[in-house]
């Protein structure tokens, strides 16, 4: 599947944020101690993206949490980093 880019070759903000959200979830699920990896990820994001990812993790009815049993695991780890 081909990624959609803007005329200047960058991914749209929504797509970048979605990829970062999935990467953060993957880090939280797979790392025994995810804090260092999450700190690196947060360092590459804009403040607005960090806040939107937190909102997705925190809200039990967000697009991220649909189809999953909601637990505080994701947003608690994210909150600890930010």
Can you walk through the features of this model?
The protein has 82 residues and is mainly α. It has helices spanning 13-30, 35-44, 47-58, 73-81.
Q: Give me the strand/helix succession.
A: HHHH
Low-confidence stretches: none
Helix proportion range: 55-70%
**Termini Cα gap:** 33 Å
Mean of all residue-level pLDDT scores: 85
Structural class: mainly alpha
The number of helical segments is 4
Largest sheet: none
Radius of gyration: 13 Å
Shape: globular
Instruction: Count every beta strand, where a strand is a DSSP E run of 2 or more residues.
Output: 0
Strand content bin:
under 5%
Describe how the helices and strands are arranged:
Layout: H1 13-30, H2 35-44, H3 47-58, H4 73-81
Features:
82 residues, mainly alpha, 0% strand
TL;DR of this structure?
By secondary structure, this protein is mainly alpha-helical. The chain has four helices and no strands. Helix 1 (13-30) packs antiparallel against helix 2, helix 1 crosses helix 3 and helix 3 packs antiparallel against helix 4 (73-81).
